[in-house]
Amino acid sequence: MSVIGVLARAALLTYPADFRAHYRDEILADIEADPSRALSQLFDLVGGAITMRVDTIARDVAYAVRRLRGAPLFVGIVVLTFALGIGANVAVFSVLDAVVLKPLPFADPSSLAVVTSIDPQKDVFTALSPLDAQDIMTHSHALVQVAASFFRQPTLLLHGRPYALDGLQVSSNYLSLLGVRPRLGRAFTAADGSAGVQSAIISDQVWRERFGADPRIVGRSITLDGAAYRIVGVLAPGQLIAEGGRIRSEDVLTVLPAHPPAAQRGERMAGGVARLAPGVTLQRANAELKIVSADLARLYPDDDKGWSFFVQPLRTLALGRAASSLWVVFGAVIGILLIACANVGNMLAARWSSRDRELAVRRALGASSGRIAAQLLIETALLATLGACFGIALAYGALHGLAGLVEHALPRAGTIRIDGMSLLYALIVVVVATFLAGLSPLLSLRAMDLQSVLKSAGRGGDGSRRHRLRAVLVVLEVALAIALVTISGLVLRSFIAVIDTPLGVDSAGVVATAPVSLPSLGALSAPAAGNTSLQNDVLHRLQALPGVQSAALALTYPVGDMELESPAIVFGRPYPHGKPPLALANAVTAQYFEVFGVHPILGRAFTGADTANSASVAIVSRRFDQVYLRGMNPLEARIQIQTGPTQFHWAQVVGVVPDERIGVGADSDAASLLPEYYAPLAQLPQPFFSAVVRAPHLDPPIAGREVDGAFAAAMPLTPAPATFTIVQRIANDTQEARLTTILLGSLAAIALLLALSGIFGVVSFSVTQRSREFGVRMALGATARSIVGDVLRRALATTAIGIAFGLIITAFAARAIVSQLGAVSPFDPATFTSVVAMVFLAALLASLQPAWRAIRVEPAEALRYE
Amino acid sequence: MPTEVDSLLPLNPRAFYILLSLAEEERHGYAIARAIETITGGTVRLTPGTLYPLIRQLLLDGWIIELGEDAHDPRRRRYRLSALGRRIAQAEARRLDALVRAARSFDLLPASSRA
Questions:
Q1: Between residues 376 and 415 of chain A, which touch chain B (CB distance below 8 Å)?
Q2: Percent of chain A at pLDDT exceeding 70
Q3: What is the Cβ-side half-sphere exposure of residue A717, based on CA atoms within 13 angstroms?
Q4: Which residues, 6 or more positions from A463, have their beta carbon under 8 angstroms from its beta carbon?
Q5: Using an 8 Å Cβ cutoff, are A347 and A80 in contact?
Q6: Most confidently predicted of A541-545, A838-842, B109-113
Q7: What is the CA radius of gyration of chain A?
Q8: Looking at residue A225, what DSSP letter applies?
Q9: What is the pLDDT of residues A176-188, one digit of tens each?
Q10: Looking at the predicted structure, is the pLDDT value of residue A171 above 60?
Q11: Beta A155-158 vs A221-224: how paired, if at all?
Q12: A-chain residues within 8 Å CB-CB of B28?
């Protein structure tokens, strides 16, 4: 055989087997007949194979599209099923990839570690002292670098305006240890920690927002907390910094003194990070640190005796918790994908076995079983791809919608996005899903025996054992759906109950601020004259704002941040057990009750005449009156107001007001039920205060800006506090509950839809399998109603079994989450009945179309093949 | 009046050449390729990699019919045009003829190209 012949034979291998068998001899003869053009002929031969295969795929795709166009309901349900399975996978994978799989944004992150102090007696891990960090670095060989950091929230003063920043004060080797390179300027060096002008590095965000992305920023001087700093660098956009075991973005970094005072040795408040020497294991580092700490204990027995150190991988501390829960969630969505594939498999099997005869005929005409399998897979791949497109859109929407809610729940949540890796994962999922979903119909096709199909017209292509397996799957899906929907229904009800719990006040039109700390307030006890006038200034500016009806300053307010628990001591009333009962104390200015639309039940509200120098007065809540002043006229009672650890005065009760709820969300139960008393802010001075204003006709953002303006005018060197309406505040405080509710709700929705597509698939399949039987029965006089009844009865029986199992699971699960349900009973009958009714109704809907198909079987058609 | 055949037009030029070469007489694959080379003055050459996939497709579509082994060379099979294939080739020829006439009326071609 010639070389050409061998090559041609090899090239022929790229063709489908049937083509090769038919044309090989002719092709070889042709090539031998024209040896002068053999080479180009060989190339064409391979090209022809590629063209032919692409053509075949294009034809199959076109064929599949044509066939699918005729079945919009089938396509809709399959695509929805795939979209849920693939969408959930893409969303969770994107989170997993961004949070866990992507390497930490530092050089050689695997050799980074967190150093903590450990007190063996207490077995407690605490932070480090910066002096310890320096000593460890000097003495240790296993750790090449050790650095310390403190939280710092400096105020940046820029063009006379204060801005609150989040930041860290770090050792000068901190950034070089992490391997973080600024985008502009340089990292800190040892010289930065020494005397002279202090250095600062700002984030890309601060650089853009506060300095207009000034390219010549490096070297510029800024004012932080009243001191001058020179900017030496700007961090890269989105740069994260490790602080102990946390990873977050920082606005500004400043340098710790190179030589901390020796007195700070015992102050273990710094986060410690370290880099392991190449090839050194954590065990060796920890063993070495035992020796180092023993040395330090000998050198500094006062501060270091009994203390030792411990290193852990940065990755474990920073991501460990998130990683373990995300892997669990990932496992769950893989489960969802498997269920989705099983459902689609059932639907495909139903659809393709109804074509038994067509396929058998085609096969008899020479279509290879490989071709038919390819067509099935192409149809499935088409559906999976369509589902993936919708699924990716769903995932995008979900990640977008939940971004604000997960921001504080996960480390580096800001980096979560659907990127190339997510799309690659989606592609892999599509391929896997295509084969998984195609498996069941493929097996059905394979089991299809040509002879028997042609003879008996596919009466029993599928064994009853396989059918039972499908039914069991549906029972499980329904049970899971019932459990998840019921649980999420219960959680939703309790969430609504928390949000809707009356505050006891009229909060509409009220704008409140976060607490503001007074500048340089000395001892808490003495009402400093300067602060009183400062507060008065703020108050008067607030009251003068256009659109503001009333304004007040207060220690706290309904759903506010602060809660001051204080002993409730009534003059002339001994308290039992030697320990006074507790009440909530609030310090407010005159218009506080007016702002919240509260009218005293008895007596009066505070007035401008209640000052630091006037007679001491107090107002109590109704509950305070009922619990602590029982049996006496409240307006004749005097209660003790504690103004310091040891100072107090007696205040005359001048009014009783309705109860207000202070806390919200998780901590709403205990604290908000406490009796409360109020004192004039001037008589009970506080280091923090918030402002509340009633501006019912102003847009909340406008009112917020006005309030900010008043603060800026009165306290120009303090950053203006955040402002919000009470409703926004409740929404913020219930974020975690909201996230839980949303996640559970989506899971429940997915489970429910999967159960529905499962029911649809199984009922479709069984109708297809029994179409001959239905035809015969109709021919023998059965009514359409009896056929439909038969189909629905079977479907609903399967559903009912699933519901029963589901209710049992739910009963156990509901008991486990009873603590999160608050006032809602874990067996809330309304939730249970509506969920069961909903699932039942949905199952009915899912079986209607197949049942309709059952009565449209032509008796003659069915009988012809008998 | 458009017929069902017209919906298949225009044809893939190579398919048309195969139909053309078979309009005259039945041929085997190699002879088809030779005939096409002759018709087109050597500008269109069908190698086995393009010829046989097309032949198979034309067979599947029923435009040509396989006749069996060639008397001179038992490795080769002979093909002839089916009635459908002939109608399709005629329809394509009419379509091309109309195109050429249109080109003439717009002076893209000389009025007579018999020369």
A1: none
A2: 91
A3: 10
A4: none
A5: no
A6: A541-545
A7: 37
A8: T
A9: 999 999 999 999 9
A10: yes
A11: antiparallel
A12: 26
- Is residue A75 within 8 Å of residue A68, measured between CB atoms? yes
Residue A690, token pair as written in the block: 């918030």
Q: What pLDDT, on the 0 to 100 scale, is given for residue A670? A: 45
Domain ranges, ordered by start, for chain B = 5-104
Distance between CA atoms of residues A642 and A635, nearest Å = 20
Token digits for A794?
Answer: 């079977």
- Rounded to two decimals, the ipTM of the complex is 0.82
Strands (E), A299-416: 308-313
Q: Which top CATH class is B5-104? A: mainly alpha
Burial class (CB in 10 A: 0-12, 13-18, 19+), A131: buried
Q: Is the Cβ–Cβ distance between A687 and A643 less than 8 Å? A: no
Of B49, B53, B76, the CB nearest to A26: B76
Q: What is the model's pTM?
A: 0.75
Cross-chain Cβ contact A29/B73 below 8 Å: yes
How far apart (Å, rounded) are the C-alpha atoms in residues B27 and B33? 10
Helix (H) or strand (E) run with residue A657 in it: strand A648-657
Q: Note the pLDDT of residue A663.
A: 60
For A679, the token pair is 């004192």
Sign of CA dihedral B105, B109, B114, B115: positive
Helix (H, G, I), strand (E, B) or coil at A37: helix
Which of A30, A37, A50 should one mutate to test binding to chain B, selecting the residue with the greatest count of B CBs within 10 A? A30
Q: Report the pLDDT averaged over residues A841-853.
A: 85
Q: Where are the beta strands (DSSP E) in A177-219?
A: 184-185, 198-202
User: Average pLDDT of chain A?
Assistant: 84
List Cα–Cα distances, A269 to A121, A150, A173, A562, in angstroms: 19, 7, 18, 24
Confirm if A274 and A147 have CB atoms less than 8 A apart. yes
